[in-house]
Amino acid sequence: MVRYIPSKIIVDTKVRDSLLTHNILNNLPGVPVEYVADTSTAIDAIRGRKDPLYAGKKVLLLTENRGRFLKPCPGTKEYICCGYRILNFATNCNLECSYCILQSYLNNPAMVVYANIEDMFAELEDELSQDSESIYRIGTGEFTDSLALDHLTGFAKLILPYFAHKQNVILELKTKTDNIGNLIDLQHNGNTMVSWSLNTEEVAKREELFAPSIDDRIEAAFKCQNVGYRLGFHFDPLIYYPGWEEGYQRTLERLFARIDTRNVSWISMGGLRFLPELKPIIQKRFPQSKIIYEEFVPGMDGKMRYFKPIRIEMYSRMLEWIRDYDPKLCVYLCMESREVWKKVFKEVRVENSENLAKILDDTGDKK
Asked: What's the predicted TM-score (pTM) here?
């Protein structure tokens, strides 16, 4: 994988002395730096470009998060949600996946790192001290890729040792990259799992333009397995196309040829879904992509989804193939209805979001 290097760095003067700012500037000695007291002018200039989403990915903006760092996953009540918490340390992603929901979600097109990390740790300390009995499943990969910028930020070196000493936390780093250099020698005490978003090689080549190959991701997972990390894998989005069965079977074959299922905490599946306003963005930015031209219907959350029978077929086949490797693996669906759960698993294993959260808490806590 070619590591991300921005063309320009913009530093909000409020975070010029932060540890993350120093890390990034030290790792990018030849990149132009501009210090600003107000980031809005710089952001507006990017918005005025012909393709602001593309132009924004070349600009790394270091600023402060003035809101909460830790938030609940933005699920919807219509579908079963896993009860995840999001640690929002950065926004946007440089991997240029055609289907990425961030294209229609973010107001700021720049690559943003929230450098006021001292405020983040203070918030975490306050939040985690309030309930020492509950399990906190925390992920950093909702609004960015957890590791895509780690060679610049060194964020993993700061956050993993912190969580290593917490008894009630499972930190999940979710990525499509092989950018694991900072993880190998870190103390994590079994409290951090590293998970990869996987797809077929065909989808990866066509739709995940700057992401490493599937084999490179699996090799990175193998290296993390060898130094004691728990692993997770997310087949989300599952993409329906002629030959999808053979494609996903090949990915699973490659995966379990390198990964011991006993080291896998969970595998999730979710069908391709997107807000209607994302379709014209994909058509404009990725004219070679064909994924939006299947038949979709509006879901209960307003997102466009494959017809229910297609989703059920894909989940059922994937579950069957995964169970052939290990029938005890924890497999769950991301943002699906109770009806779909029942038809896929042939049992009412998950009644509601609270039920699913408890299953994942128990699975992730097995160190």
From this structure: 0.93
